[in-house]
From TrEMBL, chains A, B:
<keyword id="KW-0414">Isoprene biosynthesis</keyword>
<keyword id="KW-0460">Magnesium</keyword>
<dbReference type="InterPro" id="IPR008949">
    <property type="entry name" value="Isoprenoid_synthase_dom_sf"/>
</dbReference>
<dbReference type="GO" id="GO:0016114">
    <property type="term" value="P:terpenoid biosynthetic process"/>
</dbReference>
<dbReference type="InterPro" id="IPR000092">
    <property type="entry name" value="Polyprenyl_synt"/>
</dbReference>
<dbReference type="GO" id="GO:0004337">
    <property type="term" value="F:(2E,6E)-farnesyl diphosphate synthase activity"/>
</dbReference>
<dbReference type="InterPro" id="IPR033749">
    <property type="entry name" value="Polyprenyl_synt_CS"/>
</dbReference>
<dbReference type="GO" id="GO:0046872">
    <property type="term" value="F:metal ion binding"/>
</dbReference>
<comment type="similarity">
    <text>Belongs to the FPP/GGPP synthase family.</text>
</comment>
<keyword id="KW-0808">Transferase</keyword>
<dbReference type="InterPro" id="IPR053378">
    <property type="entry name" value="Prenyl_diphosphate_synthase"/>
</dbReference>
<dbReference type="Pfam" id="PF00348">
    <property type="entry name" value="polyprenyl_synt"/>
</dbReference>
<dbReference type="GO" id="GO:0005737">
    <property type="term" value="C:cytoplasm"/>
</dbReference>
<protein>
    <recommendedName>
        <fullName>Farnesyl diphosphate synthase</fullName>
        <ecNumber>2.5.1.10</ecNumber>
    </recommendedName>
</protein>
<keyword id="KW-0479">Metal-binding</keyword>
Amino acid sequence: MNQLLLQYIDTLNIPERLKRSTKYSINAGGKRLRPILMRLTCEGLQGDCEKIYPAAVALEMIHTYSLIHDDLPAMDDDMYRRGKLTNHRQFDEATAILAGDGLLTNSFQVIASANVYNAEEKVYLINRLTEASGMEGMVGGQLLDMEAEQQEITIEQLEQIHRLKTGCLLSFAIDAGSYLAGANDKTRFILRQFAEYIGLIFQIQDDILDVVGDQHLMGKASGSDQGNSKSTYPSVLGLDGAISHKKSYVNKAKQCLEQAGLKGSRLEGLTDYLSERDL
Amino acid sequence: MNQLLLQYIDTLNIPERLKRSTKYSINAGGKRLRPILMRLTCEGLQGDCEKIYPAAVALEMIHTYSLIHDDLPAMDDDMYRRGKLTNHRQFDEATAILAGDGLLTNSFQVIASANVYNAEEKVYLINRLTEASGMEGMVGGQLLDMEAEQQEITIEQLEQIHRLKTGCLLSFAIDAGSYLAGANDKTRFILRQFAEYIGLIFQIQDDILDVVGDQHLMGKASGSDQGNSKSTYPSVLGLDGAISHKKSYVNKAKQCLEQAGLKGSRLEGLTDYLSERDL
């Protein structure tokens, strides 16, 4: 994935500073969770895994843009991300805004120009990806998240924010994986439910790590959510409540996998990893 | 166009503040130059003008997003646009960033979900639009523009910036119009040249108006480019030089129209309008 992402940027005829800035944030790494989810889904359903790459590259570009914009002073105002300076701290705000805009725009080009898809597949993927990342998805979630700061919100509102802000892209990863594997409608429906649980598990663990996590491992200050009075699962449910909430979602996610015939697949292992991860 | 744009936003299930913010910038108006160019091109070539609308809506959404982001404090730091407060002044910076991100993302959905296009047409339009608005197009141009501030640049560098920053989207408008009208390759090639000239005429007149324009008509402070030491055509060529430079492009643009069999078409009138407009 890293190579594919950097190769794509390198093929572009763009200003040097834009190239450095986008590659900087791509190189900042991350777990590549979304591409992994797409691949494991496709693999579990006996699909041709070569087909996932353009969609996975596009998805990771969108994820990267969203981190760059979320870190901006007007948003979360973060100085570090994964142990490195955030994009706007390493470069400047204007460059960070434009690097984000560029990654977002070009992500759709990666799909639209991919050789491995026919036109119908491209249109399907772009429709789903704009839905997941646009105003009815991630962008809307980020806005609700900003509005929720300094406010007391219910667990339902918190889940709605995370469903949009994080869940939609994770969901796209799994849906694209099952679509490209040619899965039937029933399996795809069940896996969309699985994706919902995965998103919530991911987010609850994120919030838990913010309370108990190892700052050195995570490369950012733990307790930073508390600092800016964000609502989190531990703040709404307490730490123990958050942990048991997460466990119930892990059970539900595994039930979905069983129904989709994916019990014992690598997706099951990934579910445990996401629930227990320490960074 | 205004109605179609607002209708699209209204169909979306999105946070209230995101709806108000995107509609605010859409309502701020603008000349709708890009949709008009697309329509006049399609009409001049005897195409079915109904086909342009989703592409024109998408294009205008991208144009609107680019204005919102360009006005941000980290970019041009503008307080007014078309006589109204800029988006981030009316709302706040976070909302403006997200409104821009949202308009950009959903613009591709407008094309990908349009009933009037088949899958191949959607893919063609999305490929061309991402090229025009992405890192190799408008976003790259905006970055070069930021870098050029406070610097002496040559007329060639200035034209390269405008070609990317403004020209690419105008060019998309004309290319999409001729593509959707089913024009032949030769005509489309000539009209792409026409589009280049139109972009430069548009920009030179913009720069001229910044020196001699009526602040009340334009709804922004004239002389604002001078204030932040931006390179402009008048600053590089002098006012008379800029005017004669513009006239030579008007002649070349009209030659293209003649070659494309569009002499006397409404595109010719638009060329004069763009060259002589006072806002």
